[in-house]
Amino acid sequence: MFRGARRADLDAILKIYARARQAMADSGNPTQWGDHFPPQELLEEDIDSNRLFLYLVNGELEAVFAFILGPDPTYARIEDGKWLNDTLPYGTIHRLASAGRHPGVAAAVITWCLEHCESLRADTHADNKIMQHLLEENGFTKCGIIHVEDGTPRIAYQKMSLTLPLRRD
After folding, report:
1. Fewer CB in a 10 Å sphere around the end CB: N or C, the chain?
2. Which residues is 47 bridged to in the sheet?
3. 91-114 pLDDT, tens per residue?
């Protein structure tokens, strides 16, 4: 089950992100989220903006992620490649983190997001081999390199909805 996050969920959300930071560090990616990302202030802003979502399994919090519809300024410029489609409105998955208790979380989140948009984008750090694998395993195409707000590069991915109408050229 998916639902919007509420401020009352913050303690549980922070625990999921702490676990994710540790898992990232343990897998050779200690710098992407460091010791404190995402900060509580950003999560509160996400909640207040209705863009932070929870994935619950049997009533327990299994994953948290930001799902944002509309243009992402960091995706306006892509290097070493191009988007699969740069004309359709798109959604973006950011800050996906799991409690690690159930397999298939990424697939469930991606499927849910694609029910709400025709084009889905994501990005990740070059050291985040786990997320790269999850994105590619779930049908995303590596499109190029974007730079996040602090200027650091990220591998950019896109997946198109399977329900797009056929083009008749």
Report:
1. C
2. none
3. 999 999 999 999 999 999 999 999
